[in-house]
Every structure is written in structure tokens, then in C-alpha cells.
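Input chain follows. Return C-alpha cells only.
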Amino acid sequence: MKHRYSIIPLLLVLGCEPKSEVTAPKDSSAEAKALTDAASKAAGDNPADALALAESLRNRQDVSAEDRAAALKAQQDALKKLSESAASGDAKAQEAIDKYRASK
């Protein structure tokens, strides 16, 4: 027996609407670009600040894929540096790591 009804309208009625793919913008906004640059620069000198800056970019919609990758790298570099400092007994570094983990 051949069905006379299309499955698409049925799916739409049931709330199974196809989702549009979310894509990053080609270029970051000026503010997002400045935050990404600041996070990258701070990763070596002030990793706690770099971690906070990179985290602030996480859910922004105005960040390009390239800048998002740079922010992620800054975040990873900052976590590595903080871990090394915490292992050497730096209480502020351990506090920054704990604060980061608590935000997850």
C-alpha cells in the first residue's frame, strides 16, 4: 500500500524541524578580535588573565573560527603555565585553576 502523505509535514507538526547549521562569522567583531589578541598576548605573562579572556570568548557569536581557535590555544597555554606554577607551589596559580574548573 502506498502512503499518500509526506513525512516532512508530519515531522514539522511533531516538532522535528530541521536545524540550520550554526557557522562562525568570517571575521570577528572588533571587540572580539581585541579580546582574542589580549588573551594570546597574556598567555605567557599573565596566564590567569588569559584564561579569563579566552573563557569570555567561548559563547560569543561574533568570533570567527580562526579567532576562536587562537583563543582556545591561549586558554590551553595559560592552563599549562598555571599548572606548572601551581606544581611549584604558587597558590594564586592553583586558585586560578580551581576557579576555572569550578566554572565548568
